[in-house]
Write a structure and sequence with these properties.
The protein is mainly β. The protein has a domain of 71 residues: Jelly Rolls. Helices cover 0% and strands 51% of the residues. The strands form two sheets. It has a six-stranded antiparallel β-sheet, with no helix packed on it. Strands 6-5-8 form a three-stranded antiparallel β-sheet, with no helix packed on it. The chain starts with 11 loop residues before the first strand and ends with a strand. The relative contact order is 0.29.
């Protein structure tokens, strides 16, 4: 699919409290996610770059030694190999995430 309308996009439960839609391509993957309040991701890293934008709500991102509470229209960039995680608090978050693939 080449076009999404985020207002009507049908999401599937990815993990408990996280709903998403992913569009994998040859060189990158785009994902729209709705993350419930009071959820936390495990610290991890991967061999590809990742970036995204917060569309609604708030999410705290931990990237390497930095952390920041992101609000709508704020972005993040995670370089390949850097440990990172995230956490939501009292409100859910909607984010658009893009993952670059490596050969």
């Amino acid at each position: 699919m080449s076009f999404w309308n985020l207002a009507t996009l049908k999401l599937e439960e990815f993990r408990p409290g996280i709903w998403s839609k992913m569009e994998p391509g040859t060189n990158l993957t785009m994902a729209f996610m709705e993350i419930s309040a009071n959820k936390e991701g495990a610290v991890h890293d991967h061999p590809f770059d990742q970036c995204g934008i917060v569309l609604e709500g708030e999410i705290e991102m931990f990237i390497g030694e930095e952390k920041r509470l992101l609000k709508p229209m704020e972005t993040y960039f995670i370089p390949a190999g850097i440990s990172h995680s995230w956490k939501t608090y009292t409100s859910p978050a909607k984010i658009l995430d893009v993952i670059a693939k490596r050969d």
